[in-house]
Fold this sequence. Notes:
The complex is a heterodimer.
Chain A: H1 3-9, H2 12-21, E1 34-53, H3 65-71, E2 75-83, E3 86-92, H4 106-123, E4 127-133, E5 137-144, H5 149-159, H6 168-178, E6 184-189, H7 195-207, E7 211-218, H8 220-224, E8 231-235, E9 242-244, H9 246-270, E10 274-279, H10 284-299
Parallel strand pairs in A: 3-4, 3-6, 6-7, 7-10
Antiparallel strand pairs in A: 1-2, 4-5, 8-9
Chain B: E1 2-3, H1 16-27, E2 30-34, H2 37-73, E3 76-77, E4 91-98, H3 112-125, E5 132-138, E6 142-150, H4 153-161, H5 172-184, E7 190-197, H6 207-219, E8 226-232, E9 241-248, E10 258-267, E11 273-282, E12 285-295, E13 300-308, E14 313-320, E15 331-338, E16 342-348, H7 361-367, E17 380-385, E18 400-404, H8 411-422, E19 426-430, H9 437-447, E20 453-460, E21 499-505, H10 516-525, E22 539-543, E23 549-556, E24 559-564, H11 581-596, E25 601-603, E26 608-611, E27 620-624, E28 634-637, E29 639-641, E30 644-649, E31 656-662, E32 667-674, H12 687-694, E33 698-701, H13 708-717, H14 722-743
Amino acid sequence: MDAATLATLLDPVAISRAETLGMHARYLVEGYMAGEHKSPYHGFAIEFAQHREYAPGDDLRYLDWKVLGRTDRYYIKQFEQETNYVAHILLDGSESMKYGSGQWTKFAYGKMLAACLSYLILHQRDAVALDIFDTETRDYVPRSNSHAMIHKVLATLAAFEPARQTNIAAILHDMARQIRRRGIVIIISDLFDEEEKIFEGIQHLRFGGSEVVVFHLMDPAELEFKFNGLVEFVGLEAIPNILTRPQEIRASYQAEVERFRSTLRSGCEKNHVHFVPVNTAQPLHEVLSGYLAYRLKTSVK
Amino acid sequence: MSFLNPFMLFGAGAIAVPIIIHLLNRRRFQRVVWAAMRFVKVSTEKNQRRMLVEDMILLALRCLMLALLALAVSRPALRTSTHDVFGQSKVTAVIVLDNSASMGVSDGVQTRFDKARKVAEQAVDALPSGSAAAVILASDVAKEVIKEPTHDLNLARKTVREAALSDRATDLFPSIEKALETLKGRSAIRKEIYLITDGQLAGWRQLGDIQKTLKAAKEQTGEHQVSAHLVFVSDTEERNLGVSGLVLSSGLAPLNRPLRFEAQVANYGKQETKDTRVTLLVDGTSADEVVIPSIPPGGTRSVPLNTRLKTEGWHNITVRIPTDRFPGDDTRTLAVRAIREIRVLMVDGEPGSEPREAETFFLGHAFVPVAAEEAQQYYIKTSTITPAELGGTRFDDFDTVVLANVPDFTADSAMALENFVKRGGGLLIFPGAKINAPFYNQQLANTRKLLPATYGEPRGDAAQDEKFLTLQTKGYDHPIVALWNDNAAGTLASARFFRTFDLNLLAAPNADGVEKNEKTNTKKASTPTNTVANLAAPKAILRFSDGSVAMAERALGLGRVVMFASSADTAWNDLAVRPAFVPLLHRTLGTLIQRHDDGANVRVGAQFARRLTADLLHKDAVVMAPGAAAGTRDMRRVELVNNTPVLIYEATDKAGIYEISIAEPATVLKFAAQPDPSESSLAELPGEEVSALGQVAAVQRWNPTLNLREWVEKARVGAEYWLPILILVLALAALETFLAQYFSRSK
C-alpha cells in the first residue's frame, strides 16, 4: 500500500485532533490485557481505586499497612483493573454508499472514518476488527491490537468496491452472535434499510453487552435535494428509475428524510446507542473530534 | 361567425406546439444516479396525481392560449352576409362622391371635397382584390363618371382623384337611385354603395325616399342585397355670406342708359356681419360699389347697383363680396346683352280716323315716352300696322308684336305668330270691343297653346264711371310688378277698370311634348331646363282687387306671351293715363325682350339652348367654360331642332360666364350659369335624421384619423372580436405564468 492511499484514508488533521481525545469505552468492557479501559474486575492491582474498612475474612494481602501504621486503623486497598477492549468496525459496503455529490462518496467517507478510528483504537493498544458488509460480510479483518494491523485495515478498505444491496439487520445479528466479549461495535452506514430491522439488530448487539455507535452517513445532496428541471433518478439499489421534477417534491422529500433520521435517532436513543448523523460535506476531523469530545464528556463518571 | 384573415386559423395548429414541447421535454432530462431512492419514490408517489393534474391544467391553458391567439389574429367577426373561407369575397361598389357647390367649403386648409376625394380613394383601397367599382359624381344630377363597375381599381382611384367640384345644387336621391340601378344587374355576392357627402340639409330633401330605397336594398337577400356606407365630411362652419341673387331690375339693357341691378346678399351664418362691401364688375372692371352696414344672421339684404353699358353686345356683370370659407357663393355673374334698339310692331285693331282715336295711341307714346325730336335716338322703335297687313309682315324683323283690339286673323298669321314666339319673340295682347274672343280661345289658346288664358265673358260697362275695378294694392310677386312693392315707386291701384274680360288661366301643360330623354331626367330631379320644347306654366302677373286676373303670361319656346284683361286705350279703363302705365309697359316689354335672351342666364347644371341664324347650322362652336384650364375647350355643333338651328350646351357645372365662339361667320355668344342659393345654406342634416339613416346604412363622420378601411371591413362583416379574445389570451397568459410558478413551488 502506497503512502498516497494512506494519506487518503488517514486524515492527518482528524487523527492529530482525535488522538488527544482518545476513543474511550463508555461502558465497562472485558479486556484481555491491561489497557486504558475499566474492567469490571476489582482487586487485580493495577491502579488504586479506594479504601474500605477491613472486615473479617478479607484478604490480608490488600491491607494497607501504611495507614494502619499511621492511624492504627484497618483499611483494605481496592484497585480498578483497566482492560483492553475490542472495537468492531462495521462499514456498509452496499451500492447505495457509492453515491457522492461532492468530493467524497459516502463509502469513501466511511472508509476514512473507519481508517481513522482504527488507527486511534490501535494507537491506544486496543484491538480492532473490521467488517465490510452489504447483504453479508464481504471482507473481514480479524481483531488484533498490533500496530501492524493498521496496514491490513487500510489495505482492505482501499481494495473494496461496493456492488450489492444492503441488509444491515442480518449483519448485526451475525455480529451479535459472533462477539464473545463485550466491546464496542461501530456501525458506519447510510442505513438505507428497514428501520425496525436495524433496531432489532442493534438490540441484539446491546443484549450481548456491547456498546454500539452508529455513524449515519448522508450526502449533502441527499439532505438538500437541490435538483431542478426534469430529472431521472437511477436507483443504485433495487428500486426502478424514477422520472420527476425534484423541485416540486423537494419539501415532501426532505420531510421524508427528516422523518427517517428522527426515527433512527429515537430508536438509537431508546437502545442507549450513540447516533451520530454525518453530513459527508463536513470535514472528517470535525465529525470525529466533535463526537469524541462528546463521548469523553458523557464517559466521565 | 366569419373571419377576416381566415388563413390565420391554420395557426390553431399551434396548439400542437405545447404538446410537442411537453413530449420533447420528457425526452430531455437530467439523469442522476441516486442512492436515496426510497425517499424519492415515496415523495413522487405522494405527489404523482397532483403533478399530473397540474401538468394537464398548464398544458390545457397553453393550448387554449395558442388556439385563442390564432382565433384573434384570424379576426373573427359576426358576418351579416355571405360566408367565405378564403378571404373577403369580391365587392362590387359604387362610389358616390358629392361634388355639389357646398363641398367647396374650406376649413382653411382643405375643402370638404378634398377630404371627400381622399375618403373615396380610401374606399377604393379598402375593396378586396378582384372587386369592381363604379364612380358617380352626385349633385342635383347623377353624373356617371365610371358607368359600368370596373375591375381596374387604379382607374377608379384616378377618376376619384381627378374628380372636379361643380357649382351645382345637391339632391342625393337621384345619385343613390342611379347607384342602385348600376348594381342591380350585376352578379356579385357583395354590393356596396359609398356615399361621401357633406351632409348639407338641402341635399337630403328626399330623405324619406332615400331611407326607403336604402332600406329596401338592405333588406334584400343574397345577390340583391346592397349595403350602403355614408361618410359625412363636413365640419361645422358658422359663417357664410353669399350673393343669393342678381337681377337686372330695369328689365332692359339699352346702350348708354342707366342700368339698375339688384343684388341680394344673404347671411347664412350664425353671426351678424358688418360693413359688407358689394362690388359690381362689368367685364371684370369695377363699376359700382355699395357697403351694407349690417346683415343679421339668416337675413338677406338687397342692394341696388348702377352702371351703364358702353358697347353693344354681351357683357359679364358680376357682383362680388369679400371671399369667405365658401368662395362658391361670393360672386354671381349675369350675361347681359346691351341692345341698341327694340323694335315693336303694334297691330292696331281700331285705328280710328284721328291718331288720337287709334287703339295704339297711348301705347305708342308709352313705349317712346320722349319728345318727338328725341324719338329717333330713343332705343325703342315702334311701327304700327292694321290687322289686314298682318299677312305680309315678317315678324322676325321685330322683337315684340303687340295686338291691340285685333278682332282675328288668318291661320297662317296665327302660325307665323306662334313660330315667332317660339323662336324668342314677345307677344303682347290687349283685348277690346272688337276682338273675336272665340277665335282667341280656340285658335290661339287651345289649338296653338299660345295664350296663357282664355277670354271669358266681358264684365262691366265702359259707358259709366261709377262701377269699376282696381288693381291689387300689395303682394306683387311677379318680377314685372315687383317694383310696386316699394311704395315710393308709386301705385298701380289708382287705375280704374270699367270693363274687363275674365282671364281664365290655362292649366300647366303636361310633359307630353317634352322630349323623351328629358322626360326621364326631369321626372324626379326636376332640373330647371330651357329647351326649345319647354312649356312653362301660365301664370298671373297682376290681379284685380277682387282676385280676378288682370295680366297673365306664359313662356313658349324661347318667347313669351303677355295678355291683358282690358283695353290698351282709355275706352275700358284709365290705366293709360296713369303714371304707372309707362313703367308697367316698359317692364313688360323688358321681360318679353329679356325672354329672348332669357337662356343667357341659366341655373348651374341647366341646359343652355340658343336659337341661331340659319347660316350657322352645322357649324362647330367652341365653348369655354369658366375656370377651365387653358386649352381645354368643349366643342358643340349647331343642330337643327324643330326646324331651327339651335346650339345646345349642357355641361354647365360651373358658375360664371360661358363664352361660345363660332369661327365662320364670326359669332360670339355668352351665357352665365348661376349657382343655386340653397347651396349657400350650411344647415346640416340634424343628428336624429343621421341616426335614422344609421338604421339603413353604416354612417361615419370624417375625422383626420378615420381609418376607413378598418371601418368598412368591420361594417362589411359586422362586429369584430379579436380584441376581447386578445385580452382573454393575455389574461390566460398571466394565469398560466402564475400557475406555473405556483405549481412548481417546492411541495
